[in-house]
Amino acid sequence: MKPKVIFIHGMFQNPKSWDAWVTYFDFLGYEVHAPAWPLHEGAPADLRANIPRGLGSLNLERVYHHYRDIVRASVEQPVVIGHSLGGLVAQLLLAEGLVRAAVGIASVAPNKMLALDWGFLRNSASITNPFAGDEPYEMTPELFHKNFANTLSREESDLAWDAYAVHESRQVLRDILGEQGEIDMERPHNPLLLIGAEKDEIIPASLVRRNAHAYQDARSHHEYREFTGRGHFICGEPGWEEVATSVSNWLEGHLSAVRS
Questions:
Q1: d(CA 138, CA 106)
Q2: What does pTM read for this prediction?
Q3: What is the arithmetic mean of pLDDT over 100-112?
Q4: Residue 165 φ then ψ, to 5°
Q5: Residue 260 pLDDT
Q6: Are 164 and 17 in contact (CB under 8 A)?
Q7: Which of 86, 82, 91, 74 is nearest to 31 (CA)?
Q8: How far apart are CA 174 and CA 229, in angstroms?
Q9: Domain containing 196: what range?
Q10: What residues does the AB hydrolase-1 domain cover (predicted)?
Q11: For position 132, what pLDDT does the model report?
């Protein structure tokens, strides 16, 4: 029997970003769930028009505990698949021994791992700007195209922004540099797959690769794969099916490799 799969969205998105993946994995016979972060439930357009009260103070600890509670409520350990900051949450759940396997796509890295990449530095500084306080970061069509959907035409990007983009808490990203973003990379863990996107302007593929290779336990499976020509919107841009198929094939091959 196939395990439950829980999808974890990243910043500036909500569960709608996983709609196609949910349909795909449901077709493959998985029990599929895509729960929202706190304050991220609803239609993206509504969330943009009416920013949820308290969004600016949402932090990484609250997001992580939200998913930890969901995972712990499962009868059997699920698989988690996370995008961007959701990929970091997936790694944190894996490190705590709560999931059967984890996949991080264009994942934020733990342990204060940074990249000397202009896109990464530009985006990180803009979002975490301490002078902005708890004011939510508003994702505009221009910023979405420049950073998320840079491999799409502007028309395609604007359609994706309208369908999927939401405004976001700055504090969640700030917190990755604190204790909440730390993982013991020497401990044994269940199977982990990290996927990088060659054209990613937010999380460069080189950082995802370094994240994957930082895991030290030789008995535990950790793997890196990279997709060429893809941006940070890798899970939604044309060709997402190739990524989803790669993930499903990896799961089929490694679910039996769970450590006892």
A1: 21
A2: 0.95
A3: 96
A4: -80, 140
A5: 40
A6: yes
A7: 74
A8: 29
A9: 4-257
A10: 5-236
A11: 74
Residue type at position 98: L
Phi, psi dihedrals of residue 168, rounded to the nearest 5°: -145, 155
Q: What is the spatial distance between Cα 11 and Cα 15, in angstroms, rounded to a whole number?
A: 11
Per-residue 3-state assignment (H helix, E strand, C coil) for the chain: CCCEEEEECCCCCCHHHHHHHHHHHHHCCCEEECCCCCCCCCCHHHHHHCCCCCHHHCCHHHHHHHHHHHHHCCCCCCEEEEECHHHHHHHHHHHCCCCCEEEEECCCCCCCCCCCCHHHHHHHHHHHCHHHCCCCECCCHHHHHHHHCCCCCHHHHHHHHHHHCCCECCHHHHHHHCHHHCCCCCCCCCCEEEEEECCCCCCCHHHHHHHHHCCCCCCCCEEEEEECCCCCCCCCCCCHHHHHHHHHHHHHHHHHHCCC
Specify which residues 81 forms β-bridges with. Answer: 7, 103
**Sign of the CA dihedral running 109, 111, 112, 117:** negative
Tokens 């199977």, residue located: 191
What's the total number of domains in the chain?
Answer: 1
Q: What token pair was written down for 134? A: 């708890």
Between helix 19-27 and helix 240-254 the angle, nearest 10°, is 40
Handedness of CA 18, 21, 23, 26 (dihedral sign): negative
167: tokens are 């405004």
CA pair distance 238, 152, nearest whole angstrom: 9
Residue 136: both structure tokens together: 């939510």
Residues 6+ apart with CB under 8 A from 192: 91, 94, 101, 102, 103, 104, 212, 215, 220, 221, 222, 223
For residue 14, the domain's CATH number is: 3.40.50.1820
Rounded CA-CA distance 171/201 in Å is 20
